[in-house]
């Protein structure tokens, strides 16, 4: 699972348009705009959840949440891959993060 | 990810994270081997390993009277590379999204 976010200096409806309009999507997504995409949830101005597939790769789920903030809208994106691979991968990434400070306590 | 709650629970414990990290370093280990040199009992290690196995983070094979544990067979390097790659992709996309929005404001 990967999370990134950015604050756009516009209101949520404008941000939503930039996220979902076909032509605008092509501008900022580039090639990824052509992927097979299925929308799971759509709450205009608030939340978009979709799945997409790149060629033969396993699909991933992308969740986009819009939050009004001072000065604009925060766009928070989370992409996750499903399946046992993903769980081990997540564990591996966490393991790597904590590798330098393992704390051992008696169970 | 429907499995995510188990993984989060399993990794919430620092001892379990440390055990998983130790397992990743070698060719797997038994509970006895893992407990050696650590301030926890073999039984405590076995209990932790059982939780990790339940979350799909380790698998186990019988070795004599003990179980030998290994991290589940997903190359950890690949997974970290995936996360890094996807993170970089989204950094680019969001920067491009900001530029798209700025262009339309002008």
The largest sheet of chain B is:
3 strands, antiparallel
- Total individual domains of chain B: 1
User: How far is the N terminus from the C terminus of chain B?
Assistant: 41 Å
Helix content of chain A: 25-40%
According to CATH, what is the topology of chain B? Answer: Arc Repressor Mutant, subunit A
CATH class of chain A: Alpha Beta
Low-confidence stretches of chain B: 1-5
Radius of gyration from the alpha-carbon trace of chain A, in angstroms: 17 Å
| The CATH architecture of chain B | Orthogonal Bundle
Number of strands of chain A: 5
CATH architect. name of chain A = 2-Layer Sandwich
Percent of sequence in beta strands of chain B: 5-15%
Q: What is the CATH superfamily label of chain B?
A: Winged helix-like DNA-binding domain superfamily/Winged helix DNA-binding domain
Q: What's the overall geometry of chain A?
A: globular
Overall number of domains of chain A: 1
Overview of the structural elements:
The complex is a heterodimer of chains A (107) and B (106). Chain A has one domain: 2-Layer Sandwich (Alpha-D-Glucose-1,6-Bisphosphate, Chain A, domain 4). Helices cover 30% and strands 39% of the residues of chain A. Chain A contains three helices and five strands. A five-stranded antiparallel beta sheet of chain A has the order 1-5-4-3-2, with helices on one face. The longest helix of chain A is centred in the C-terminal third of the chain and has 15 residues, at 84-98. Mean pLDDT of chain A is 81; it is low at 84-93 and 95-107. With 106 residues, chain B is of the alpha+beta class. Chain B is built from five helices and three strands, in the order H-H-E-H-H-E-E-H. Chain B has a three-stranded antiparallel beta sheet. Chain B is elongated and about 70 Å long. Chains A and B meet through strand 1, helix 1, helix 2, strand 5 and helix 3 of A and helix 1, helix 2, helix 4 and helix 5 of B.
């Amino acid at each position: 699972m990967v999370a990134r976010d950015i604050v756009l200096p516009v209101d949520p409806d404008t941000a939503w348009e930039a996220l979902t309009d076909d032509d605008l999507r092509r501008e900022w997504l580039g090639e990824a705009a052509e992927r097979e995409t299925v929308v799971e949830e759509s709450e205009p101005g608030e939340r978009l959840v979709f799945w997409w597939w790149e060629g033969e790769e396993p699909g991933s789920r992308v969740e986009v949440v819009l939050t009004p903030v001072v000065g604009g809208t925060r766009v928070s994106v989370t992409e996750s891959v499903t399946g046992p691979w993903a769980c081990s991968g997540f564990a591996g990434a966490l393991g790597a993060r904590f590798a330098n400070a393992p704390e051992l306590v008696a169970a | 990810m429907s499995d995510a709650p188990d993984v989060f629970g399993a990794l919430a414990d620092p001892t379990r994270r440390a055990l998983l990290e130790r397992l990743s370093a070698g060719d797997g280990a038994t509970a006895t081997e893992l407990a050696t040199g650590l301030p926890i009992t073999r039984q405590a290690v076995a209990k932790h390993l059982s939780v990790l196995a339940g979350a799909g983070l380790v698998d186990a094979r019988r070795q004599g009277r003990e179980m030998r544990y290994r991290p589940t067979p997903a190359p950890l390097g690949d997974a970290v590379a995936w996360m890094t790659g996807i993170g970089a992709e989204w950094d680019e996309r969001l920067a491009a999204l900001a530029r798209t929005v700025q262009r339309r404001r002008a």
